[in-house]
Design goal:
Molybdenum Cofactor Biosythetic Enzyme, Chain A; single chain; alpha+beta; 30% strand; Molybdopterin biosynthesis moea protein, domain 2; binds magnesium ion; binds adenosine monophosphate; 4 domains; Molybdopterin biosynthesis moeA protein, domain 3; 6-stranded mixed beta sheet
Length: 424
């Protein structure tokens, strides 16, 4: 962590710091001040490194491509041999296949049959597509209209020796893994996985596999949180359900902080329950803020317990997912070494629903994007926006983000949407 004491002091001195109603942007900025990424690395075979964060720049040890080569199936010629006033006839002197170069030189009045990827033979400087020649025994007839150097891929045009192919901080997706392989590199240094421990709080919760008694509900948050963390590439430790009992909670917070870089809980931070959790956390660590001016997800605590970061997510299942994606995701990516932290794309589209919105909080309504016959996109809400309706997250493919000061919105208005594709 950066010096958290100092950051906290600076925060409390800032005039607009209200831990009980943090504006969304301010909360993001505050969290970012406390984050310092993992530094430990491990060396992995590139296949095993899929999804991991690169801890070193990958420098190209070679020119890519390594040689001038043909972009087409055709004939390698000397441009100077081509007549500007009509057809040119050239003798085919050999063949250059991908992986089997022509060893000689293309002499005056000669050409070489060449396939895509074949090394351009010495003497030749231009490729004529096979569709543009007529084969006549051992000769080819070539019409006019060609440019010098056409259809060539130059050595080093993609990457030159010594050039940085990938920067530290990128995530290794299939494209990056392939790129590293194309340089002949078998292993890469990646950051160790971030360790995240999580548990649910609530006397009403039962785990799946148990029959709920009256008033009890199934714990779903631990499953969404497990899924979201796994997708982010974290090492996850599930501590189960902890009852609303100060002694049990204290033990759980203590064990969790000792086991991981980040502790995530759900429930127990709403009005009433928050008080004893607050006392506990003030005893075990420090909480930077408790509430965010947003909907859903108003009760969201952020702080630290021992050396671990702490996110106390709300209990309501939709609030859990919204606060995770709007705050925790960025923080975990930064802690994992991602640099820059990738932002989910946001853009404006007309909303075809009327939206209820009271000024004073940023809202993250759940939306469904669709495209009409002309190819224009629009968005509609998923229906009821209650923070307990998890189905709204399942049906949605975007958040409709409504700014703090915004009031009700009439159908047809442009709204900001943030696509969830690939994260939910
Ligand atoms: P809380 O913040 O603990 O007051 O919880 C707010 C609401 O979310 C209550 O209706 C809880 O029953 C519900 N809730 C809390 N934790 C979970 C969970 N792990 N899974 C599903 N619902 C939960
Ligand atoms: Mg509770």
């Amino acid at each position: 962590m950066n010096d958290p004491e100092k950051s906290l002091q600076q925060l409390s001195c800032a005039g607009d710091y209200d831990p009980n109603s943090m504006p969304v942007d301010k909360a993001r900025e505050v969290i970012a001040r406390f984050l310092s990424p993992v530094t430990a690395t491990e060396r992995l075979h590139i296949r095993a490194a899929l999804g991991r964060v690169l801890a070193e720049d990958i420098v190209s040890p070679l020119d890519v491509p390594a040689h001038d080569n043909s972009a087409m199936d055709g004939y390698a010629v000397r441009f100077a041999d081509l007549r500007s006033d009509g057809e040119t006839v050239l003798e085919v002197g050999g063949t250059a296949l991908a992986g089997a170069p022509f060893s000689g030189e293309v002499g005056l009045g000669q050409c070489v049959r060449i396939m895509t990827g074949g090394v351009v033979p010495r003497g030749a400087d231009t490729i004529i597509m096979q569709e543009h020649v007529r084969v006549d025994g051992s000769k080819v007839r070539i019409g006019g209209g060609h440019r010098k150097n056409q259809n060539l891929r130059r050595a080093g045009e993609d990457l030159k020796v010594g050039q940085v192919a990938l920067r530290r901080g990128v995530s290794l997706r299939p494209a990056e893994v392939g790129l590293v392989a194309s340089l002949g590199i078998a292993e890469a240094n990646v950051y160790r996985k971030l360790r995240v421990v999580f548990f649910s709080t609530g006397d009403e919760l039962v785990s799946i596999g148990t029959i709920p008694r009256e008033g009890q509900i199934f714990d779903s948050n631990r499953y969404t949180i497990h899924g979201m963390l796994t997708r982010l590439g974290c090492e996850v430790i599930d501590m189960g359900v902890v009852r609303d009992d100060p002694r049990l909670l204290e033990n759980a917070f203590h064990d969790a902080a000792a086991a991981a870089d980040v502790v995530i809980t759900s429930g127990g931070v709403s009005v009433g329950e928050a008080d004893f959790v607050k006392d506990l956390l003030n005893k075990l660590g420090e909480v930077v803020f408790w509430k965010i001016a947003m909907k859903p997800g108003r009760p969201l605590a952020y702080g630290r317990i021992g050396n671990a970061h702490f996110f106390g997510l709300p209990g309501n299942p939709v609030s859990v997912m919204v606060t995770f994606y709007q705050f925790v995701r960025d923080a975990l990516l930064k802690l994992s070494g991602r640099d820059p932290v990738p932002q989910l794309p946001t853009f404006k589209v007309p909303c075809t629903s009327n939206l209820k919105k009271a000024p004073g909080r940023t809202e993250f309504q759940r939306g469904i994007l669709s495209r009409d016959a002309e190819g224009n996109w629009s968005v509609r809400v998923t229906g009821e926006q209650g923070s307990g309706i998890l189905r709204s997250m399942s049906e949605a493919d975007c958040f409709i983000i409504l700014a703090t000061e915004q009031g009700n919105i009439g159908a047809g208005t442009l709204v900001d949407v943030q696509v969830m594709e690939g994260i939910i």
